[in-house]
Amino acid sequence: MSPSVDKSQTPLLRVAGLRKAFGDTVVLDDLDLVAEDHSCVALIGASGSGKSTLLRCIDLLEIVDDGVIELDGQDITDPRVDANEVRTKIGIVFQSFNLFPHLRVIDNVTLAPRRVHRASREQAEAEALAMLDRVGLRNRADARPDELSGGQQQRVAIARALVNKPRLMLFDEVTSALDPELVGEVLELIRELRGDGMTMLLATHEMSFARDVADQVCFLDGGRVLEHGPPEQVFGDPQQPRTRQFLRRIIEAGRL
Amino acid sequence: MSTTEWQPSALQRERDAYRRRRSTRAILLSLAITVAVIAVFVTIIHSSSGWPKVRDSFFDLGVGWKGLPGLLDAFWINVQIMLISEVCILVIGATLAVLRTLQGPAFFPIRFFTAAYTDIFRGLPLLLVILLVGYGVPGLRLAGAPKSEMVLCIIALVLTYSAYVAEVFRAGIESIHLSQRSAARSLGLTTWQTTRFVVFPQAVRRVIPPLLNDFVSLQKDTTLVSFVGVIEITLTSLNQQSQDFKFVHQVFAGLVFLALTIPLTRFTDWYSKRKGWVGGGQIR
Fold first, then answer.
1. Pairwise CA distance, residues B173 & B131, whole Å
2. What are the CA-CA distances from residue B48 to residues A27, B35, B36, B55, B57 (Å)?
3. Do B215 and B86 touch, CB atoms closer than 8 A?
4. Cβ contacts (< 8 Å) between B14 and chain A: which residues?
5. Looking at this predicted complex, what is its ipTM?
6. A10/B93: higher pLDDT
7. DSSP-based three-state secondary structure for B103
8. pTM for the whole thing?
9. Those residues with Cβ within 8 angstroms of residue B55's Cβ, 6 or more apart along the chain or in another chain
10. A86-117, pLDDT tens digit by residue?
11. Residues of B101-131 as b/e, b for ≥16 C-beta within 10 angstroms?
12. Do B11 and A61 touch (CB under 8 A)?
């Protein structure tokens, strides 16, 4: 689907014919998507268009009703696949942070290295501190999550996901619960990750950021990718009437 | 959106079939293990030298069946004690819990009283409380003090169990995040209204399992009232046993209790689930 797919190389992530319904509500309906290694794919679309559900399906937090999700060529939706192992290769950051409130910042970050990867406490803490340093929160390592601002909490959540050294990062509207002053620090961090070549899927309402950082923009509507392409094409010359309507409303709201 | 025309793909049908096979296998395996464990127990018991005597005394179903109507009559006393006590316990326990969470120096005596009350009555053995109330209160010869043993026993049960239940409610109240209070107070609700309409209803849902725990425990502890001469089910079973020297009456008394507590527990679980109070889903 991307214009410059090298056929000889499997993309890092390939989604084909994905379907997911909750009861009678079909959220994803025969959805296709490809993310190349080291690329950034932005998912845009109205609330309820399936962005979050798609990310949750990719992280195997939901059981899909049909279709295939391939990570590095492996079908991870196959019930024979060890979901826990797959998840260690994918990091996800949630809209509402979901930090563990009973653990200090450092313990939030070292939980998976110590319990899943069996790292020693010393090694895990050294790595965690380095990661916290990177997100600019080394000095808050001993704080509890509820002592941090929203932006700080979200940066801890990103550090917690990154410390697993994921192949793919999923960002689920990570700035939607933040007030405007704090949005910048989180987006800046994502931009840096992008610069380091991290492959990422980014569900977002921050259109100017998506335009700036993404290689591919996918417009989701009615559970499908209605339109996709490089940002300049999707934002500059949208082909579908629904996309035009959506972008017009965004512009009217002053968000592009 | 299309719901009706969608048909699962061949791949999905294969996956569904695999999941079905896997769950069938898991069910069969767990059944096999259960049967094997039961078989081992039955074999061990059957091969013991004392088994014929034990069977004759504990499992003489004919004799037990004949004693059942008497047991059920007596059990009605237990049920009455249990129901009346439980209503009082829930009211008093909830009140104590709310009083204990009151903030501010003016409420210190109230907090102190409720804390002291729970400390004392949780710490005293129930049987002692029943004996003290059952024999002590009539001994005072106060005008208007209850004389019926059953009423005195209910008082003793309520005194003890209210202390337990208050702590259960308090744990529930304190587990509700402060942001819920903030939201309620922001709407102009008073402290009391916040507790009554926002915090307490959420707390109750959270503590239903431990509340049920205490309720079942209370049902069983109604047997202790036999110590002050109330003819309830265990005392009746002992009377029957003294006639024919068979323990089958105690076995039947136990079954009568289970016949009440197990459906009650299942019902509560089912009701909480249907109301969406528990069970937040599962991740593969």
1. 33
2. 63, 20, 19, 11, 15
3. yes
4. none
5. 0.79
6. B93
7. coil
8. 0.79
9. none
10. 999 999 999 999 999 999 999 999 999 999 99
11. beeeeeeeeebeebeebbeebeeeebeebbe
12. no
